[in-house]
């Protein structure tokens, strides 16, 4: 059996690929390298350079490598930017998923693990998000991920696709020093880049109704996330029952102040963050329960916040001057 990982040369996808390889599962990567890096793909794992929006390339990759299942990680992942680029977001995340599912159907590939997002919930009215929490996305990105879940559901009805979708908030850390998060929009790489430039990181809002007054968010280690994708793939291979959606959450979250303090301690950069006013629309606390995923996917938080920061920092230091700033 061969699993194709779309977006497998990116930060999250590359961790999934390595976890599949370590589990003894045959893997092929499809990635257009728009945000990924060919050096992230392990030696011996085929890399097909192409977009999920290119039906011919997707179909050829599935047939040539005898793909039996797809872990769909590829997509345009920047929620804030998606507000300014809605058409691009829908083209990549919705049309791309349609193209992928059509190619899978035509090749009789009947299992799919979808890398969804907790952005489907928008700003929930509860401080602990479960799979039963109402979805109300507030960006084209969140909307496109929800539509992706609907497309999988429709494909199940139409031709028996077996699938599950994994929703999560903030992915951090590194499972290997040669894999780093190069996103220009994620907190860890933003703060690390500022420290490299001797700039001072900022905390937006210190008067929230939280223990230390700063926002609390759900952070999970990328290696833990990758293992959940592997277990989901295994369950689909085995024909075991799966829920349509699983949250991958910490159940407690971490505050921005906690993160800054941990970064200062781990990196040795002695800084005091600038304190700024709240940003409009930032809720005080958003944390997800991972109980359902723990029951079915062996989900657990194997890494604490210090592990997350330390592993991410080691990868950033290892990248050195070769670290991209796009």
Q: Can you walk through the features of this model?
A:
It is an enzyme of class 5 (isomerase). There is one protein chain. It is built from ten helices and 14 strands. By secondary structure, it is an alpha/beta fold. The longest helix is centred in the first third of the chain and has 21 residues.
Please give a handful of descriptors for the protein shown:
326 residues; alpha/beta; Rossmann fold; 7-stranded parallel beta sheet; 40% helix; globular; Epimerase_deHydtase; NAD; NAD(P)-bd_dom_sf; carbohydrate metabolism
Structure annotation, total helices: 10
Strand arrangement, major sheet: 3-2-1-4-5-6-11
The coarse silhouette is: globular
Mean pLDDT across the residues is: 95
Using only C-alpha atoms, the radius of gyration works out to 19 Å
Percent in helix: 25-40%
Q: Name the CATH superfamily assignment of the largest domain.
A: NAD(P)-binding Rossmann-like Domain
Secondary-structure-based class equals alpha/beta
**Secondary structure tally: strands:** 14
Whole-number count of domains? 2
Architecture per CATH nomenclature, i.e. the level-2 architecture of the largest domain: 3-Layer(aba) Sandwich
What is the third-level CATH name, the topology of the largest domain?
Rossmann fold
Order of helices and strands: EHEEHEHHEHEEHEEEHEEHEEHH
Question: How far apart are the termini?
Answer: 36 Å
Pathway: Carbohydrate metabolism; galactose metabolism
Keywords: Carbohydrate metabolism, Isomerase, NAD
Cofactor: NAD(+)
Organism: Nocardioides donggukensis
